[in-house]
UniProtKB/TrEMBL annotation:
It comes from Rhodocyclus tenuis. It comes from the Bacteria. This is CRISPR-associated protein Csy2.
Amino acid sequence: MSYLLLPRLRIRAANALAGNVAITPAQLMACVLFGHNLGLKTGCRPQRVAIVHHDAQLLGEYGSDGFYDFHPQQRRGATFIDNVDYSSKNPHALSLQPTASCHLTLSLLFEVQGSINVQRIESFLRTARIAGGNIDSHGKIEAENDLDDLHLPKGFWLIERSDLLQSEGSPVDALVAAIGRRPAKTETTGAQAGDVPPPLPESWLAASVLGYAMTTPFETRAGARQTDRGETPLHAFCEPLLGLVQYVSTRDYGQRPIPWWEHSWLQDDVFVIRQSQAVPQTISPSISSL
């Protein structure tokens, strides 16, 4: 195995809407599928990815009540096409689809099978997107055979916390309760002496799309996005699956194993991303399909 580090990717206007029910900068699904696209375009074979968060800026305006009165920026098209883009209530205005966007700074660490061509990766990053956002800049790309030879930047690991959803009742209620809980006053977040890392804090939790459940069979449909070779892949409508993730500083994370994320099919119609060696995932469907 080889390791590829893409440090400090500055991403402009990335999607921050998770399943139409949550606004979050934790775009894990986009990062995992970015690795898949990276492999297709550069010839390497990324197996897993770990995500270090550095910064996020939600695009919008804050009202008098601070964070709880946030109004995301909305976008409208610039042209009208045969009246189909007009609002149903105002014949002179374009219709509006709710959106939420953010600027992100992330570092992505990939476990790669096969050779790594840094020049091809640099060329790919010039036009690549993550969660729909443009990659404006990045640090020096590193590729090593030994993980210890990489210069991992400091920041916040994105880790899975589905263990906090293991409660009776509605999964949606458990998700909301976990995000709104207050951290215990006795929690330890600093490094401790000895080989045992300190317990993880229960703060800085966020909802994120961790999978999709198909609601229709896979079949050829008109209008589906084609591949780079002009082929039309099979298409299915789906529901996003929300899970719970956490931002943990690299210092507080201690000497635990790298929190790798990888994708898999739980069954023929359920696609998920999971953290390696994580607690079995508990995910809940959101209200509306994508």
